[in-house]
UniProtKB/TrEMBL annotation:
Family the entry assigns: Belongs to the MoeA family.
Pathway(s): Cofactor biosynthesis; molybdopterin biosynthesis
Keywords carried by this UniProt record: Magnesium, Metal-binding, Molybdenum, Molybdenum cofactor biosynthesis, Transferase
CDD domains cross-referenced by the UniProt entry: MoeA (cd00887)
Its EC number(s): 2.10.1.1
Keyword Phosphoprotein: no
Cited function: Catalyzes the insertion of molybdate into adenylated molybdopterin with the concomitant release of AMP.
Catalytic activity line of the entry: adenylyl-molybdopterin + molybdate = Mo-molybdopterin + AMP + H(+)
Protein known as: Molybdopterin molybdenumtransferase
InterPro entries per the UniProt record, alphabetical: MoaB/Mog-like_dom_sf, MoaB/Mog_dom, MoeA-like, MoeA_C_domain_IV, MoeA_C_domain_IV_sf, MoeA_linker/N, MoeA_linker/N_sf
Pfam families: MoCF_biosynth, MoeA_C, MoeA_N
Cofactor(s) in the UniProt record: Mg(2+)
Source organism: Micromonospora halotolerans
Residue span(s) of domain MoaB/Mog: 186-331
Length: 419
């Protein structure tokens, strides 16, 4: 039974909406408790996943003394007699005799017995073919373990895998990585008034969330196929129940758009009750985006799935994404709770009474300032298209120019680490 249904049956008022920061922490905790299974992935297929165990080195890095320059590996004082050459990928014999040298390439293994490396551009040849010059006082090679020692932890579990992590793993000798499986997500679009093509008019509006929300979900690390986006779903309870039940068969997270209130065609709450869902969060004291929700369903075998109810107004829906979906997905992927950066307001931002205000801003990363944007109504997307995130104004306060406030960034590129 839903929270509100139970409250009505008991003749009491429904509980108040959750505070924004409380809601964020709550959904992260339930996501982390339901963290997705671990799988092994080849390096070439690991991008966008999350490390399920620390990344450690299999050998010292570098594994052997490695020349930093093209030149001459010498032993003792010069001039030196050339006795050979060593290229990258070879294992050279020791330099045994004082006054001997081998030509050496950048990245090649330094022969045992080498006392210095003379850069090729700082060397000359004597009349009898020997090499002369003055080696620099600092060693011109990398020592084993200079970057890391065998078994050293380089990155903790929960680190998002990106090309830099993949390259580091390869340099450590790994062929596969143990990662969290990427969340599978689906989207149900509710609303008979929605058009899926062409311009709006005659009482009908264009669906802006069906095309946009899957792209946001992918930037949070989800797998979303075209077939996972369904709608508009007919504004009837049986249609809602059938659509949500079908989406939950494969998805870890189903997002819905619209229907989060209690109007004559808002069927999400009865649908969740029919399917036996429990609310993690049911409305949040935030503007815009107040009627957002997150519900959880647990199968008999213990499998956990989530439903995120996004408001129908487009900007409010994105507020719900950054407020509830982003921390939930961080938990499901075993990533740390997203830490919000601090920014300086360039202009005043009003408060919203006892609600948190998430105000769209453009983020000047160089100056560290946040500039409010225009066209920010809950039904508008023009301001969102020019914004980098939301300045967070806490309940009972307002933001003055110069104030330091948290920023809730939008994920601007797939796999971006800053939430």
């Amino acid at each position: 039974m839903s929270t509100e249904t139970a409250a009505a049956a008991a003749g009491v008022a429904a509980p108040p909406p959750a505070g924004w920061e409380e809601a964020r922490s709550r959904v992260y905790a339930v996501g982390l408790a339901a963290a997705l299974p671990t799988v092994g992935r080849p390096l070439a297929d690991a991008d966008g996943h999350t490390l399920a165990e620390p990344l450690t080195t299999r050998t010292d890095l570098p594994a052997f003394p490695t020349s930093s320059v093209d030149g001459w590996a010498v032993r003792g004082d010069g001039p030196w007699q050339v006795v050979g050459r060593v290229l990258a990928g070879q294992t050279p014999p020791p330099l045994e005799a004082a006054g001997s040298t081998v030509e050496i390439a950048t990245g090649a293994m330094v022969p045992e017995g080498t006392t210095a490396i003379l850069r090729i551009e700082e060397s000359t040849r004597t009349a009898d073919g020997r090499v002369a010059g003055t080696p620099r006082p600092a060693p011109e090679w990398r020592q084993p373990g200079e970057e890391a020692y065998a078994g050293e932890e380089l990155l903790p579990a929960g680190t998002p895998v990106d090309p830099a992590v993949i390259g580091l793993a390869a340099s450590c000798g790994h062929d596969t990585l143990l990662v969290r499986r990427r969340p599978r997500a689906a989207l149900l679009v509710f609303g008979d008034e929605l058009l899926t093509a062409g311009p709006p008019g005659a009482g009908r509006v264009r669906d802006a969330l069906g095309p946009a929300v899957p792209a946001w979900l992918r930037r949070y690390g989800c797998q979303v196929r075209p077939a996972d986006v369904v709608g508009p779903v007919a504004d009837t309870l049986p249609a809602h129940v059938a659509a949500l039940r079908a989406a939950l068969a494969d998805a870890d997270l189903v997002c819905t758009t619209g229907g989060t209130m209690h109007g004559p065609v808002d069927h999400l709450h009865p649908t969740l009750e029919t399917l036996g869902a429990d609310y993690v969060v049911n409305t949040v004291a935030v503007r815009p985006g107040f009627p957002m929700l997150l519900a959880r369903l647990v199968d008999g075998d213990g499998r956990v799935r989530f439903v995120a109810g996004l408001p129908g107004n487009p900007q409010s829906a994105i507020v719900a994404l950054v407020s509830l979906v982003a921390p939930l997905l961080a938990g499901l992927q075993g990533r740390p709770m997203p830490v919000l950066p601090q920014v300086t307001l360039a202009e005043p931002v009003p408060g919203r009474g006892d609600h948190t205000h998430l105000a769209l801003v453009r983020w000047d990363r160089v100056a560290g300032t946040a500039h409010p944007v225009r066209h920010v109504g809950s039904a508008m997307l023009r301001g969102l298209a020019g914004a980098d995130g939301f300045a967070m104004i806490r309940p009972g306060t307002s933001g003055a120019a110069g104030d330091r406030v948290p920023l809730v960034p939008l994920p601007l590129t797939p796999g971006e680490r800053a939430w």
